[in-house]
Amino acid sequence: MTEITAPKSPVTVAEFTEGIREQLKYGQGVTPEQATPADVYVASSLVVRHYLQDAWFKTQQDMVNGNTKAVGYFSAEFLIGKQLRNALLNAGMLDQFDAAVEGLGFDPQDVVDSEYEPALGNGGLGRLAACYVDSLASLGVPAFGYGIQYRYGIFRQEFDDQGRQVERPEYWLANEEPWGHVDYNRSQKVSFGGEVVEEDGKKVWKPAWSVRAVPVDYMVPGYKSGRVDTLRLWSARSYDEFDLLTFNKSEYLDAVKPKVEAENISKILYPEDSTPQGKRLRLEQQYFFTAASIQDVIRVFYPGQSDPDLTTLPDKITFQLNDTHPVIGIPELMRVLIDEYGYDWNTAWDITTKTFNYTCHTLLPEALEVWPADLIGELLPRHLEIINEINDHFLEELKGKTRDKDKIERMRIVTNEENPKVRMAYLATAGGSHVNGVAELHSQLLKDVTLRDFSDLYPDKFSNVTNGVTPRRFIRLANPRLSALITEGLGTDKWLSDLDLLQGLEPLAKDDEFVKKFAAVKQANKEDFAAYAKREFGFDLDPNTMFNSMIKRLHEYKRQSLKILALIAKYADIKSGKVSVDDVLPRTVIFGAKSAPGYYLAKMTIQLINNVARVVNNDPDIKGKLHVYYPWNYNVRLAQHLIPATELDEQISQAGKEASGTGNMKFALNGALTVGTLDGANVEIRERVGAENFFLFGMTVDEVDALYAQGYHPAVYYERDPRLKAAIDMVADGTFSNGDRNTYAPLVADWLTKDWFMTLADFTAYCDIQSDIEALYRDPLEWNRKALLNVARTGYFSSDRAIQDYLDNIWHTGPLA
Ligand code: OAK
Questions:
Q1: Ligand 1 pocket check: which of 77, 125, 285 to mutate, most ligand atoms within 8 Å of Cβ?
Q2: Are 75 and 325 in contact (CB under 8 A)?
Q3: Is 558 part of the annotated catalytic residue set?
Q4: Which residue positions does N6-(pyridoxal phosphate)lysine occur at (predicted)?
Q5: Cα(665) to centroid of ligand 1, in Å?
Q6: What integer pLDDT is reported at residue 8 of this predicted model?
Q7: 552 catalytic residue (yes or no)
Q8: 558 C-alpha vs ligand 1 centroid, how far in Å?
């Protein structure tokens, strides 16, 4: 058994200081007197990396030599957020850093703030992947996160003078980035296009062009585990800098074209989230990173072997496909096994299906990726052949399982039509061992609806792993005050690696003095957030109002419209005198959300929210009782500031549409109460915190289905509830568009005639629950008691528990010895 020690860390502040001085001198070429906070940031990051290096080596060596199966987490997105503080925490160097930096005359906050946030994801799926690699390393499990190092991450959101979203490029690599280690010597070749020919009775793919996949490695230090895993993000480079022949003719742009085209592959993250797309470049990206990763795994686990025994691959590593984006990896592994290593079909299929598993993260049918077979054939002709063959074998297998011909037809991986399509979710389900959803309700709906035929015939493949979030980033780093109070209450800080220990806070909810301390933490966090919002956005938040947040992607199903309509209804009531402003509970509503650039109604909703903010915040009749703020460019950093300061969290999607949600977990763990529907993980959060500590409203999945079946007419609800009518009329009459009735006409028309996610049908219930919320808020002790119970009872939603579930039920592996 190998003995594991915690990562070697600079025990003294003096050592950390000396490390920074050295890096400033030899790395940055500046003296401490000349250094800027950004220089100190780079130097400090390199010091941390330096101290983690041995543990990183050792983890890799033990992984290759050890007897524990590793995990390869394949994801098109890793929304990792800022690295420095997280690495310091996990490596046990936070205090040394603070003291060293202060000793050199810098404010640690300024240094940390110099880091540019890598925004390599759109939302939930990408942030989950980042939490999962943190937990894998913290549990001591050998793992690779495999993805793409996009040159441009999710766009930087700005608002124009009309309140509309404007997308700006997010060039996060503009400054020195000390975390990514570019490893040119371990690059891989990834090829595209061309044709398949027969040579000696064998299929041979003759690609037309290739790109060089260069790994950029990020350390993933485990929290107190002594282990450092690897996040390997591929960057696309050209093999040919330029075409000399063309260049000689002085056609510079043409000459560099191949380089530009190759490098385009990793240039930009697609800004879609749960919305359809079908871009060739996206397929290129998907193949690029999965192909490079599969070759890399063979290089790492079978070093120097020209004839490796790849039947052992499933014992060495298991691949988790984070939604369908990396599913092209399945035919790629088949191709590698058959064409490059000479395995027969059945052996290759056995290895492949034992190696892959698939997690689905959506319930929206339009978000399930389907690729035109033609496009796959053009880019990856050999893969299309293999996919067709997988389809044929699969249909044969189905014939042995059922006589229901319609069912077999419905389950085709490749559709039977003039322009056939490849259903990636079906390919993933057929080509792997396990399929899981991300919350109990979601996993159930996958079995009952989305993948019903598959679950009928392969019931054992299906399971659930309810999502989780890392307590290191989202409690300890985001909310140091609450962390200190939890540690005080429990008498230990072990909860950071065993979040179930939070249950120990339960008795303290009866202790008024403790509850008051808890309330004081929240109040201080609100004040901090107000100062931050002033600094960053120029907003004037009043920390003596209720802080009510809704942060997530802007999507119709998430129903930001419901929130804004309810707010407008309240405003209308005050304006019309139905409600006296003096009776209104002071509330600050904070939105954070990006919309996909081409999503018309979502973008119009952003504009509406901004204009409601403009009107309401400046209306003297409101006497400051209602405020709306929409900080632009919602990202991980903003989440870390806002979540600890929030008292009421909105999880108000239409039941049956939000696969899980992870913001809901972060808020509950930071002592916010939730107003929500029975959707995604809300269901499990409510079960755990208790119905009396959760504001439930709205239709259930069954009620939604019944209403659709019966025929949904949103205008009926508009006529029925005068509050709703007043709110919609106010949007329609130009109150929020300087009198222009056209601005929001498409949104109003959609609400009244389509309202696909039944915002109007849930409006009355949503407004009604507000009186419960406000009555409780008027009793601060009771509110905080319930909020504390939310903290005490949500330890289950740690990503450590989620990863343990994957280890036990799907990956069948564990920590290194
Ligand atoms: C993105 C692209 C395609 C399909 C799904 C997504 C996505 O981000 N889904 C989100 O995943 C989160 C993590 O599992 C869930 O919490 C969200 O409910 C889900 O929308």
A1: 125
A2: yes
A3: yes
A4: 666
A5: 14
A6: 53
A7: yes
A8: 12
Q: Give the phi and the psi of residue 514 in degrees, each rounded to 5.
A: -65, -40
Catalytic-labelled residue, pool 552, 570, 625, 793: 552
Task: Give the pLDDT band of residue 1 (cuts 50, 70, 90).
Answer: very low
Is ipTM strictly over 0.90? yes
618-651: pLDDT as tens digits: 999 999 999 999 999 999 999 999 999 999 999 9
Indicate the pLDDT class of residue 92, thresholds 50, 70 and 90: very high
Phi-psi region at 699: left, alpha or beta (left = phi > 0; alpha = psi -120 to 50):
beta
Q: Give how far the C-alpha of residue 717 lies from the chain's centroid of Cα atoms, to the nearest Å.
A: 35
Range 70-81+117-380+434-465 has CATH code 3.20.20.140? no
Grade residue 470 by pLDDT with cuts at 50, 70 and 90: very high
Q: From ligand 1's centre to the CA of 327, what distance in Å?
A: 16
Q: How far is the CA of 363 from the centre of ligand 1 (A)?
A: 9
pLDDT at 251: 67
Rounded to a whole number of angstroms, the CA Rg of the chain reads: 27
- Which residues lie across from 358 on neighbouring strands? 321, 435
Residue 2 has pLDDT above 60, yes or no: no
DSSP string of 394-451, one letter each residue: HHHHHHTT---HHHHHHT-SB--SSS-EEEHHHHHHHTSSEEEESSHHHHHHIIIIIT
Average pLDDT, the chain: 95
Instruction: List, by residue range, all CATH 3.40.50.2000 domains of the chain.
Output: 70-81+117-380+434-465, 471-796
CB atoms within 10 A of CB 308: 15
The domain defined by 471-796 carries CATH number 3.40.50.2000: yes
Give 438 Cα–ligand 1 centroid separation in angstroms: 9
| Ligand 1 atom nearest residue 680's Cα | 18
**Closest CA relative to residue 653, chosen from 701, 618, 608, 692:** 701
Q: Given 316, 335, 361, 461, which residue is catalytic? A: 361
Go through 652-687 and write b for each residue having 16 or more CB atoms within 10 A of its CB, e for each that does not: bbbbbbbbbbbbbbbbbbbbbbbbbbbbbbbbbbbe
Among the options 127, 553, 555, 570, which is catalytic? 553
**Are the C-beta atoms of residues 652 and 699 closer than 8 Å to each other?**
no
Active site residue 662: yes
In angstroms, the CA 567 to CA 459 distance is: 45
Ligand 1 binding pocket, CB closer than 6 Å: 123-125, 128, 273-274, 323, 361-362, 367, 438, 467, 658-662, 680
Exposed/middle/buried for residue 814 (C-beta within 10 Å: 0-12, 13-18, 19+)? middle
